[in-house]
Write a structure and sequence with these properties.
By secondary structure, the chain is mainly α. Helix content is 63%, strand content 5%.
């Protein structure tokens, strides 16, 4: 019977093959949700050993606690939500971070946290496996919230009717950092629609860019787009071999 340690190592090999070989009343008209579509990794890649990704679990707990508090407290929601004029005029810069830990309702929270759970449980131990360390994972997550909101801030810093919230800018960064290590892995949209990870990534970037320009719904496509791109760039800078791994896997698909 395979031990838990060996099982986790085998799971990591799926994503980091070259490394393994080398080592042997607030809702206004312009209010926007930052929410990712529900997508999942295959069941056989999911670990329920929560000790293997404690930071991800802690982030989920903080998101849930703050979101549930805000569900019944509009004053608290108003203080934490992303509202560009409050930042530009009142120097409330903390909103860049706090807005990434609150959600509009239960379904908004659920979709983002499920995605964070499935992808964070692979990326977080990957940071340790690759020698990047847990602190850099925390920096990555928090900086992804900020970076994903900067274009929105610049666009709406004088728009008194603009509000947004949700974790999906950071979650998108985690998802897209993972695509560098497993481009051909099948992920599942709506639980049962299989699609290669890399094809999903290309389609999602194109869709987010198009919908951001179109601007006809209340979804924060800008945060999704820039969060996704940040995830790719951050991982390539933090671990340059990730680009080599990506190219190796892209040119040698395992169907």
């Amino acid at each position: 019977m395979i031990t838990q340690i060996n099982a986790d190592k085998e799971r990591l090999k799926v994503y980091y093959p070259l490394q393994e070989k080398a080592q042997t009343d607030l809702w206004q008209k312009n209010y926007q949700l930052r929410i990712l579509p529900d997508l999942y990794f295959p069941v056989h890649l999911i670990s329920m050993d929560l000790t293997q990704f404690p930071i991800t679990i802690t982030l989920i707990v903080i998101n849930c606690l703050l979101s549930f508090l805000c569900f019944s407290n509009n004053d608290m929601m108003n203080k934490l939500i992303f509202h560009p004029p409050a930042i530009s005029q009142n120097n409330q810069w903390y909103r860049f971070i706090t807005s990434g830990f609150i959600h509009k309702d239960g379904s908004h929270l659920l979709f983002n946290m499920i995605t964070l759970f499935f992808f964070g449980q692979s990326l977080e131990p990957g940071f340790t496996f690759l020698g990047l360390g847990p602190m850099l994972y925390i920096v990555f997550y928090l900086s992804a919230i900020i970076v994903s909101e900067i274009p929105t801030y610049l666009k709406h810093k004088n728009d008194e009717n603009y509000y947004s919230l949700g974790a999906s800018g950071a979650v998108a960064a985690i998802v897209f950092a993972m695509v560098l290590f497993a481009p051909w892995e099948k992920i599942y949209l709506k639980l049962f629609i299989p699609i290669p990870f890399v094809l999903y990534a290309v389609g999602y970037l194109a869709y987010s860019a198009y919908m951001d320009r179109k601007g006809k719904d209340n979804i924060g496509h800008s945060a999704h787009l820039w969060g996704s791109l940040y995830g790719l760039v951050f991982m390539i800078i933090a671990y340059p071999d990730s680009l080599k791994i990506f190219m190796e896997q892209i040119t040698h698909p395992h169907f």
